[in-house]
Amino acid sequence: MAKKTKKETPLMKQYNSIKAKYPDALLLFRVGDFYETFGPDAVKTAAILDIILTKKAAGTEGETALAGFPYHALNTYLPKLVKAGERVAICDQLEDPRQTKTIVKRGVTELITPGLALNDDILNSKSNNFLGSIYMEDHRLGIAFLDISTGEFLTSQGNAEYIDKLLQNFSPKEVIISKKAKREFEGIFEYGGHLYTLEDWIFQADYANETLIKHFKVNSLKGFGIHDLFEGVIAAGAILHYLNETQHHRLSHIINIRRIERDAYVWMDRFTIRNLELYQSPHLQATTLLDVIDHTKTSMGSRLLKRWLALPLKDEIEIVKRHNVIDSFIIEQNLYELIGHQLKKIGDIERLISKVATSKIQPREAIQLKNSLEAIDPVKAQLSSSSNDVLSQLGGELVDCTELCERIKQTLFEEAPVNIQKGQAIADGFSQELDELRQISKSGKTYLDDLVTRESEATGIPSLKISSNNVFGYYLEVRNTHRDKVPENWVRKQTLVNAERYITEELKTYESKILGAEERITILEQQLYDELVHWLQQYISQVQINAKIIAEVDVLAGFTQLAKKCNYHRPEINLSHTIAIKSGRHPVIERQLKLGETYIANDVFLDRDEQQMIMITGPNMSGKSAILRQTALIVLLAQMGSYVPADSAKIGIVDKIFTRVGASDNISMGESTFMVEMNETASILNNLSERSLVLLDEIGRGTSTYDGISIAWSISEYLHEHPARAKTLFATHYHELNEMTNTFERIKNYNVAVKELKDNVLFLRKLVEGGSEHSFGIHVAKMAGMPSQVIVKAQKILKKLEQSHATDDHKESIQELNNDMQLSFFQLDDPLLDSIKDEIVNTDINTLTPVEALMKLNEIKRMLVKKKQA
To answer: What is the mean pLDDT of residues 114-126?
Structure first.
């Protein structure tokens, strides 16, 4: 006979029906005071959160896994689940359990994913938390980014290389694509975040257009300047659909969508972004450029700085505006100091106002919003009165939010609680009804004390006590010795060993009044707070404007501090094709020098007419790569709007920066170091422009010497002869390339100087004219601690090769050298070697004691000493 299956319980039936709608998410199911997970969800949750995994009867045959945590600990556990890459569906009770006799109605109120988070414990205050969306169709790609925590919504379109660059720059935590595009996406992009697929029909032009128009309440998308972005609009529409699907309906803070202008920013491919280590490094605990230049004091400023670093400007006028602000801050010292002081008081108003829009802001955060907006007032006043037009314009754009601040001040206590549920959030005097209820609640103890005194005197019971419990509320307790004095109208509720407990009509009436007041206080506080949050929503756009301007002021004030602290100077930005840097320094390396060390600065000059390409030769470890990188970083900083680490710099606007610096095997893709190098170099050569800056480091080293020299020569010639005449720095250890300057007029030889001492080499790290004939690689090997016999042989091989260079008999020379000298401590025909060999061979090491071994070693040593003396 088949086993009987137990009937499914109503609770598990409800759970299973909701879970079926969210099969790929962890379902946190609210049961009383706990969030519970069941089955496979419970196993996964317990492992991530390190909580107890148990079992319970599932209402069907067998048992099911169970893991849960108290509902008030949601903000502690939720971030851990999301950071582990999980999608989490929050299933809440949608009605008061006391108001129903059947199972409580439940439903998913929010679905949190890595790309859709509002919880401060999940978010990084210094970085955006972008959700990305990509539309792919017949090599046409559109992309969109949304940070739901700030309301920033951006879109663009282009080829795969451009989309890849944007993925690198914006680093979305999650990307959504259509199911049919998943394989193509994974074949093109190296994306390490969370990928989620949606149904193909969502990525349709008409549906996307309609979704965006409906959200923004407009007739067309022309006002946003994105109506011509066919693919970009589809990607953006998919994001709004995804928000609706994940129960994110309160989106009034997403008030516009901006186009990422491809031609407005300096082009950097993902290799360049990685090679220059702008804001992340493959090396643990390495210092990035962002670490060095970030002197911002607000979260908004820190996020904006990262954006400026990813997207340096090409517009000369806009760049100069930023430089002018720094100039003004340096001149107006008092203004700079006051603004710096005020910025420290400003919280993350961009994310706080987003919480207002989503009704997730808590009382203490509302107070923080008020205090932050009040701290902006002195900034607005000082900027507006500045003699600098850019500063005064920024001051004029800041919005006065006095009315908002006053409303919060009137409504909430300054020391408001973290959570509205904790009570005591609404200020005294704001609501007459609330004040009266609080008075009743506060007077309860006094009233009860008076009642005990009165009843004690009336009955003659001296030890009368009043207390309460969860069974029958307030009661009067009488010891047995006074039991005969209890009035008839008292009702006995409990008998103890030495006493009895009674209730009275007056006590029950007052208890009802007290408990009713406390319950009404909770409901009324929530109601008044909800009204406040709803009223605040009319200020969303004004606060977002203030957040944007404060972020700009913060970044520029940070640039000012950087310039003053690190001796940076204002670059001259122009439309020429020249880069002229005097005494330039590497901003990151300079910061890492030991106390007392001075960075060796270098000059670099490049143009399209006379010195288009600098061929840099010099020893390994001499600083060639640093000179390449610092040139790119100085240009980047200048076009971001910052001062630069140089005595002076004239920068003709650069539109593309390419680097080929270092490489590593891409084993997973089946690519060697050399293949990676060639891929990156091919990308550079196929995308050159007149304003490109190209930095090449040791091209060709991944193959044989002659292959490498041939490829490096050919690439150099291509760059020289290409109509773009891209400005190029080429660091190489192939000294043969020095000969190119004799044939190609715009290629100039430079080398990183060294000073040769008797037994050593001193790296001067100074770039000087002329080529270098030596790489001093053996010296570097010596510095690395290579065994001395290896160094000696390497020096002999080098000498032999140099002697035979002209006769083209390298193989014979090396073979002759190997025949002449093995890596040995002795000549092979040395009689002493035979004696020592016999001594060692005839020794039984298995029976040798430690003392005997030392004695044997000493004996061999004496033989060597004797040989030396002879």
So the answer is: 89
